[in-house]
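Practice problem: predict the structure.
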Amino acid sequence: MAVGEGRRPSTGAATAAGLVVAVGLLAGFFLVMNTVETEIWQGLGVAAGLSLVTLPLLALVLRREEDPWIRVIITLGIVGKIAGSIARYYVAFVVYEGSADALRYVRAGEEYAAHFLGGDLSPIGDGRFVGTPVLEYLTGIVVTLTGPSLLGAFLVFSWLSFWGLYGFYRAFRIAVPDGDARRYALLVFLLPSLLFWPSSLGKEAWILACLGLAAYGAARMLTRSGGYAAALAGGFGVAIIRPHIALLLFAALAAGYLRRTRGERAPLFGPVPQAVGVVALLAVMFVGLQQVEEFFGVEEETDGVADTAEQILDFTTDRTATGGSEFDAAPIENPLQFPEAFVTVLFRPWPTEADNAQMLLTALESLVLLGFVALSWRRIRAAMRQAWSNPYIRMALVYTIGFIIAYAAIANFGILARQRAQLYPFFLVLLSVRPWVRARRGEDGVVADDAAEVAPGPAPRLDRLDRLE
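Answer:
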């Protein structure tokens, strides 16, 4: 059977299923609009509209995939994001009775929407285009399009974060073409933390969407040509919310860019473009460092970067050690503390440290992930070896190390569990490299490479559209 013939039924079935969902949502919308409160039927209306927008995009995405299992995983991923958004809404406004930042965002967004609908594109409230005011402004744009529905805003931001995850997946396929794409897709689309935490109206969803765009652009920058606009746009989207994450992103990108993979054709101007790119990245990092200092309120007179970092870590520890679920954080002061920070940032709280049902579920997921990491030690070892030759793996490794160092100062399990969604897509790259060992000399004196531990079947290859990217 030809590849194209095997692809059509699956794509058609997915499209048909999507149409059924869209029709069902529209029917539900008209059925309940007179029987339930406005908030719910407005949310259903937004869901129906998003499904109609998503159908052609999902059909295109599925058509690009030759692996039927990955097509299933992607479809389950977008369904899971919808379920995660509803779950986040329920936890925020039923379990915690509205004790969520999303309520403040949507109220501010309604005020902006009133201005927008009147043709007044007002500047952000206090004039600072960074952090919470930016998210309120973005919420105003969403509310203008969808109406004042909290559930609708949750679904829109969750939808954006799904496409961020897809950006990470495409980046992996482009930059690690011999990697285990099926494993990475399974992890990045269906990991519970990525389905739940960045599936609401909040900073995590926006950050994940922008990081995915930046990762896609970086993958093209590091291994092919182009991608600069996507990387810069994604980095800018991160910077206007959390400058420190953007600084970490560009530092990791610079680490990859210093020794990037050459394409099939030699650069037209030799090493000049790469030198210009490095200088540009260093300039962006310098500006980013200034924004980070302003964001965290670092004193103007410091004794260099080390003193600045110490002030930021102290600020983070003091700021997060309140509000319940706090613990004694141990910011990294020397390399010997890194293993403890690695375990804390990625896997805590333990089940014995959970103080509510939601935290217990997080702890159980972390425990399973820890076991999965332990079983993947060969892949992690392979990733460490390939980091020198593969710039995207190197970028993922540097980002992971930097994130762990920065977030070791977080002193609240709830905040840590929510914000490490910004780390997982990069960290999961290290778990999805195919394991290998160095060549050895056999008994007959012939030097041969050990066979890679790969799944049976044809060698992985990129789809046709990827070859044109």
